[in-house]
Design brief:
Shape: flat
Strand content: 35-45%
Strand order of the largest sheet: 1-2-4-7-6
Helix content: 10-25%
Structural class: alpha+beta
Radius of gyration: 37 Å
Number of domains: 4
């Protein structure tokens, strides 16, 4: 909460005046007494020279003031500096108010009429301000006269008489600051609310931190500003009666066990003037350090540090898929606690399918009870065999502080049915949304948006093809075939199929296509030119082809998290090199 000295002086005068009316050039929007905020604009002069600067000040007061205050239209004026912004909290006669001020320095463009248009914000509007601009400079410059000792020769004629009195008043003013935790003992990862309170018997014109508070050993979240009664609430502190106002609230999560201390914070408090001979002043008030006792969390297999109350669920975007296509499994954790600390899902292993790293999504909000909402992870599951694939329950463990123990939330088992695949005649086409998605109107999962038909032979199918090929080509291969060799080593690709595969691979770099289409094209070209690879083949050729196919399928089914064009060009180049070397 930074401020400008000149603007704060104006705020002090405003806080001390009974009606809150401004000085020359001020305009105020029509308000009634029940309005939630007020909007004003003012200038420091209505007649200036073309060489003189003009200060425009826009002030908004109230608890529900808009965040953005746009610059009004300017006629024959331009901005040379600003906006300079300051914020104040004032407590006058036991009532709390907040204000924000924007200040601009304007310069006339030419002699003549100038105007500052209406300021419009939050459904309110000020009246335009007219300014006369004449030739030259007509505003007097402030004298800067000092003696050799750095004092103003004109001085303050009342300083010697009343200075000691003002200083004594500031030192004895009953204004206190307090940092109050919602609890003083908790576990690692549990939330506590830290509230900063102002206790005062005086009218306060401004309040700010002298230095930003420090929270070593805590994860810190901001809480929404609490709605405060303008008159605060009655409270007692150290046997004295005060009006109490909540100034700031923080949500803290301890990150380690032991005794943690929140250091004292020092506030600068501006005191409003109470008479002609009292210019107010600024005092400093510290909070007391806050000590928190933090208990460690128990240790258990599979526990990652989640604290709160949570529920885990898992679902598939569809129950049946053709072989070669992908399904999306969504694992979701919802509840309240240190949900931002839950940064990963349990490991997902599915027998008979390849699982790609998940994409994470969050829907979170911060409350006094902790971080609430949900986090979800979408796994792309690519079946490698037909039939029914069983997905085992996934467990999520968290610490229930109320029960004092680790609790496990387990998802229900899932079954994915995989129908026999069909060979792709060409590039796969992206289908529309599923019938379920169209019926419910829900947002489609990622796999529903970029799912493509394509042929991805599984290990059992490849093994069958290997056996068949060995029988068919046994007479041709003869003694040249090594024991335990692969189908690919016996497969003699025609020069026509090799050239066709290389042409297809060149399309990846030349033609626009989705990553799914490009990856399917690379896989199809490799299959046509190289044939299958036997499971028992441990040759250099087989290892290189398997690694290449793994990379291709990863890109094909991975979430769309960026631009894969360069990666796909690299895969196509590697595939072309493999075709030339081993086909």
């Amino acid at each position: 909460m930074r401020r400008l000295r000149g603007l704060i002086a104006g705020a002090l005068l405003l806080a001390a005046s009974p009606g809150g009316a401004g000085g020359p050039g001020e305009t105020q929007s029509p308000q009634d007494r029940n309005a939630q905020f007020t909007l004003r604009s003012e200038v420091d002069a209505h007649k200036i020279g073309v060489q003189d600067p003009l200060q425009l000040t826009i002030t908004v007061e109230g608890s529900n003031a808009p965040d953005e205050i746009p610059l009004p239209p300017l006629v024959n004026l331009e901005v040379t500096a600003g906006p300079f912004q300051s914020s104040q909290i004032s407590i006058v006669n036991g009532r709390m108010s907040q204000s924000r001020t924007l200040s601009y320095v304007l310069q006339p463009r030419a002699v003549g009429k100038a105007e500052i248009g209406a300021v419009q914000a939050g459904g309110q509007s000020t009246a335009p301000i007219a300014v006369d601009v004449v030739a030259g400079a007509i505003r007097p410059k402030e004298p800067q006269r000092q003696d050799p000792f750095g004092r103003d020769p004109l001085g303050d004629p009342f300083e010697d008489m009343f200075g000691a009195r003002r200083r004594g008043r500031s030192e004895t003013l009953r204004v206190q600051m307090e940092a109050q935790p919602s609890r003083s003992r908790l576990h690692v990862g549990e939330p506590l609310v830290l509230t900063y309170w102002l206790y005062t018997q005086a009218s306060v014109a401004d309040l700010q931190f002298k230095e930003a508070p420090q929270y070593a050993g805590f994860w810190v979240e901001d809480l929404e500003r609490e709605k405060v009664s303008p008159s605060g609430e009655a409270a007692s502190l150290e046997g004295q009666s005060y009006r109490r106002f909540p100034i700031l609230r923080k949500l803290l999560f301890p990150t380690k066990a032991g005794t943690l201390t929140i250091p004292a914070s020092v506030f600068r408090v501006g005191i409003a003037r109470t008479s002609f001979f009292d210019a107010g002043g600024t005092i400093e008030r510290p909070t007391k350090p806050v000590t928190i006792t933090v208990d460690p969390l128990p240790d258990a297999p599979g526990f990652s540090g989640a604290v709160g109350h949570f529920k885990a669920t898992a679902s598939l975007d569809r129950d049946t898929v053709p072989l070669g296509e992908a399904a999306t499994l969504r694992f979701r954790v919802e509840g309240t606690g240190n949900l931002k600390w839950v940064d990963r899902a349990p490991e997902l292993l599915v027998s008979g399918a390849k699982v790609f790293p998940p994409q994470s999504k969050s829907d979170l909000r911060t409350t006094e009870s902790g971080v609430s909402g949900s986090r979800s992870w979408e796994f792309v599951v690519v079946p490698e065999t037909s039939g029914a694939i069983e997905i085992k329950p996934m467990a999520f463990s968290y610490f229930d502080a109320g029960a004092g123990k680790i609790v496990s939330s387990e998802t229900a088992p899932l079954t994915l049915k995989v129908a026999g695949g069909t060979a792709a005649a060409g590039l796969p086409q992206a289908p529309g949304l599923s019938a379920a998605a169209r019926a419910t109107g829900a947002l489609p999962l990622r796999s529903e948006l970029d799912r493509h038909a394509g042929w991805a032979p599984g290990p059992r199918l490849l093994a069958s093809l290997v056996g068949l090929a060995l029988v068919l080509h046994a007479g041709l291969i003869g003694l040249g075939m090594r024991g335990g060799g692969s189908y690919g080593s016996a497969h003699a690709a025609s020069s026509r199929s090799v050239r066709a595969a290389l042409r297809e691979l060149e399309r990846v770099s030349r033609e626009p296509m989705t990553k799914e289409q490009a990856a399917a094209l690379v896989e199809k070209a490799l299959d046509e030119a190289m044939g299958g690879i036997a499971d028992a083949d441990d040759s250099e050729r087989a290892g290189a082809i398997r690694a290449l196919l793994d990379d291709v399928r990863f890109v094909r089914y991975a979430p769309q998290l960026g631009d894969y064009s360069e990666k796909l060009k690299d895969l196509a180049a590697r595939a072309a090199e493999a075709v030339r070397r081993w086909a």
